[in-house]
Write a structure and sequence with these properties.
Radius of gyration: 23 Å
Largest sheet: none
Number of helices: 10
Structural class: mainly alpha
Oligomer: single chain
Helix content: over 70%
Low-confidence stretches: 10-19
Order of helices and strands: HHHHHHHHHH
Length: 290
């Protein structure tokens, strides 16, 4: 009887061990199917599912988020602050923050993405970029998502230096809005193919989030009279425009050669023209103090 019990227990454990990978595989497959339904039109889903895997994982968006969180913790904990919910002097004196009078330090046009003004600011950006960035990177991989994100960050600071030249910049909103803009255009253009029953809901949610956030940013910029440096809202809009152009091209070219797409070259040339105009404006025409 004892030997039979041992044999039965071994059989049970072996079948259980064989079952777990199958269950895990089914969960992964279900997750990938949901990702494809949210991110791709119907005619591309089968191709994606044939190739889908989590290798490489969404490294870019995770690493960027970890660095942003690390910088926030550094300024909230190790730099002198009266409180950490809304950071004060620490971030304004940071060598990462974009400040108009220090725009000759060119790295600030990009590095401002790592600095956030408070816990609400960092959490909002992290939640949005992880919620959208991870599935986007699973489908389009890190290079495409990274290019769109960085394009949004640079577009945000350059546009702010032109249209709101006296204001500072902190936060990754330009990059986040680039992801939102690219996904929004993809959802609108492929409305009927990308889960049509939830299409209206998805688009309305994006419009509600963006409208609320931009409205609050405009309120902080023009209506409140808080002491300290004014933070520009232009990066939100410019990042969204970058996403709706460059991001749209990247996110609608699954399994296609970008270099053969005329829309790609149109967006790239337009972005380069804007970039050099902004650089020349900051060198020769900007009314901001030197």
């Amino acid at each position: 009887m004892g030997d039979n019990d041992i044999e039965e227990q071994d059989t049970f454990h072996e079948s259980d061990n064989r079952g777990n990978p199958k269950r895990r595989g089914r969960r992964v497959e279900k997750f990938q199917k949901n990702v494809s339904r949210w991110m791709l039109p119907e005619d591309l889903r089968e191709m994606y599912l044939e190739r889908a895997n989590c290798c490489p994982p969404p490294i870019f968006i995770i690493l960027v988020s970890l660095v942003e969180l690390g910088v926030f913790i550094y300024y909230a904990v190790w730099k002198p602050q009266k409180q950490w919910v809304t950071l004060g002097a620490g971030i304004w004196e940071s060598p990462l923050t974009y400040k108009p009078e220090q725009r000759e330090e060119a790295w600030r046009f990009l590095s401002y993405m790592f600095v956030h003004a408070g816990v609400e600011h960092i959490l909002g950006n992290l939640i949005m970029q992880l919620f959208l960035g991870i599935p986007l990177e699973l489908v389009h991989k890190g290079f495409e998502v990274g290019m769109v994100y960085i394009a949004g960050v640079l577009a945000g600071s350059l546009a702010s230096s032109i249209f709101d030249p006296y204001s500072a910049l902190v936060g990754a909103s330009g990059g986040v809005y680039a992801l939102i803009g690219g996904y929004f255009m993809n959802a609108v253009v492929n409305f009927r193919e990308m889960m049509p029953l939830l299409g209206v809901f998805r688009i309305l949610v994006i419009v509600l989030i963006v409208g609320t956030d931009v409205g609050f940013a405009i309120y902080r910029r023009f209506i409140t009279h808080e002491a300290g440096m004014k933070v520009s809202f232009v990066a939100h809009i410019a990042g969204g425009v970058a996403g709706m152009t460059i991001g749209y091209v990247f996110f609608t070219n699954y399994n296609k050669e970008l270099l053969k797409d005329p829309r790609f070259w149109l967006c790239i040339v337009g972005y380069i023209v804007f970039f050099f105009f902004a650089v020349l404006f900051n060198i020769f025409l900007s009314p901001a103090p030197a």
